[in-house]
């Protein structure tokens, strides 16, 4: 599994982001499985709001971001839950991508929230990834109550730590998987190809 490359895309722009912290734990577990890893921090990218009339090459760092995702064998998307969904920086990043970056690519999902379980954020991300023809892992990680979930950068709850680590392990385990045959409805989604 040493040739597997896992990229985690952090949808939080906060300096003290618990999303980023949780994704670092995901990537640590992936490295323990022999994968190379990279955390893509959207704070380091200039991404204007998506405009379908603008070529991706002319949209700040969108082309660079897409190239990093396209080079991945598995992608883990992480986001805080805002208003019952995932964060707008991640939405913008995904809008600049399409089938080239996601089709037949293994994708893991992680969401965090300051309160209850961020299930709807995970559901929304799963729908987006499925429309991009990604292979979304059945296992996902939800980190609720983030104010008390970490202490000195480590998970307080061992079961939650195991669940997050399992996401990294599954990203490596299923990074190379045979795609399913296409369906009639899959041909109807034109996506953001070339944008």
TrEMBL record:
GO cellular component terms attached to this protein's record: cytosol
Gene3D superfamilies, per database record: 3.40.50.360
SUPFAM superfamilies to which the protein is assigned, alphabetical: Flavoproteins
Chain ranges of the NADPH-dependent FMN reductase-like domain: 5-146
InterPro entries: Flavoprotein-like_sf, FMN_Rdtase-like_dom, NAD(P)H-dep_reductase
Molecular functions per Gene Ontology: FMN binding; oxidoreductase activity
Co-factor(s): [4Fe-4S] cluster
Record-stated family: Belongs to the SsuE family. Isf subfamily.
Protein name: FMN reductase
């Amino acid at each position: 599994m040493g040739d597997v490359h896992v990229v985690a895309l952090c949808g939080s722009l906060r300096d003290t982001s618990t999303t980023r912290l949780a994704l670092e734990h995901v990537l640590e577990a992936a490295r323990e499985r022999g994968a190379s890893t990279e955390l893509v921090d959207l704070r380091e990218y200039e991404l204007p709001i998506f405009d379908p009339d603008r070529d991706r090459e002319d949209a700040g760092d969108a082309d660079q971001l897409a190239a990093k995702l396209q080079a991945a064998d598995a992608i883990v998307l992480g986001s805080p839950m805002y208003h019952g969904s995932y964060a707008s920086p991640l939405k913008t990043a995904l809008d600049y991508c399409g089938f080239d970056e996601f089709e037949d690519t293994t994708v893991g999902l992680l969401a965090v929230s300051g309160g209850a379980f961020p299930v709807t954020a995970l559901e929304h991300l799963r729908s987006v990834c499925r429309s991009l023809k990604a292979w979304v892992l059945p296992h996902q990680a939800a980190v609720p109550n983030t104010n008390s979930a970490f202490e000195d950068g480590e998970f307080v709850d061992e079961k939650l730590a195991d669940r997050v680590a399992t996401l990294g392990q599954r990203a490596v385990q299923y990074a190379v998987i045979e795609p399913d045959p296409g369906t009639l409805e899959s041909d109807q989604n034109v996506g953001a190809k070339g944008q």
